[in-house]
Amino acid sequence: MPSFLVVGGSRGIGLALVEELLKDPDNFVITTARDLSQSPGLRALTSKYPKDRLVVLVLDLAHRETVERAGEEATTLLPNGLDCLIHNSAINLRPVGPFEEMDLDQLEEELRINTIAPIHALRTFLPLIRKSKAQDRKIIFMSSGLASIENGFFWAGLSEGYSVSKAGLNMVVRKWGAALKQEGIATFALQPGYVDTDMGQGLSSWIQEHAAWVPMMSPNDCAAQCLKVVREVKLEDAVAFYSFEGKREPW
Question: pLDDT per residue over 11-21, tens digit each?
């Protein structure tokens, strides 16, 4: 049974990824949430699927001890290792505004959660990925089109701190992924597009004024397209930055 771990599955894209993965009866899915009681969608899935199909672990990226505890629990749940890790969690504390007005404490928090915490999460779960005997072990970091340095000029004024933190995450993927490829582990960054989530709604006024041509997707449509990319990319394609459409994005 293929095993998946989705870090950050309580709502939005993460919840949709979990729901989409569970449509395949062969998949075993582990996901994480800071507080399951605050996620009615995830609670509904735990009522629908038995524990041999879906398990929810408590994990808060702001508290490293919860990551380590989740790693211990996942080790018990996955005696044969983990086939695919999808890291989805992120924060965007200041959707709109110029650099000169940026709250540096907010920027520090975005860097901590969006860039540094994913390193800790991967370090925690990497032994399980290494243990897996699957031929196509994969690590996927959900990134953003705002992380593209080449295209950054177009999005000036939109989520500046978030953009910096996600560009940092992309460098983690680029460099660590190069090392992991030598072990037969395929690592990718994936930008999900403009999605109708709480975070996406926070960008809507800027998008309508400056990029009205960008369509907003539903989380379910986004998840289906992103998982198609996850299924199709191979080790020889690593390390790359993909869009939800399966096209290579500029770093």
Answer: 999 999 999 99
112 burial level (CB within 10 Å; 0-12, 13-18, 19+) = middle
Indicate the Cα dihedral angle 144, 58, 123, 128, nearest 10°: -110
Strand runs (DSSP E) across 23-112, as ranges? Answer: 28-33, 54-58, 84-87
Mean pLDDT across 192-216 = 91
Structure tokens at 29: 């899915």
pTM above 0.85, yes or no: yes
Q: Which CATH class is domain 3-243?
A: alpha beta
pLDDT digits (tens, 9 = 90+) for 125-143: 999 999 999 999 999 999 9
Assigned token pair, 77? 């749940």
Mean local confidence (pLDDT), 225-250: 97
Contact 186, 237 (CB under 8 A): yes
- Tell me the C-alpha distance between 157 and 102, whole Å: 11
Looking up tokens 């996942």, which residue turns up? 74
b/e per residue, 165-177, with b = 16+ CB within 10 A?
bbbbbbebbeebb
Q: Distance between CA 176 and CA 179 in Å, rounded?
A: 5
pLDDT over 90 at 153, yes or no = no
Q: What is the DSSP secondary structure assignment for residue 138, as one 8-state letter?
A: E
Residue with tokens 């000036």: 156
Number of H helices, E strands in the chain: 9, 7
Q: Is 43 exposed, middle or buried (0-12, 13-18, 19+ CB in 10 A)?
A: middle
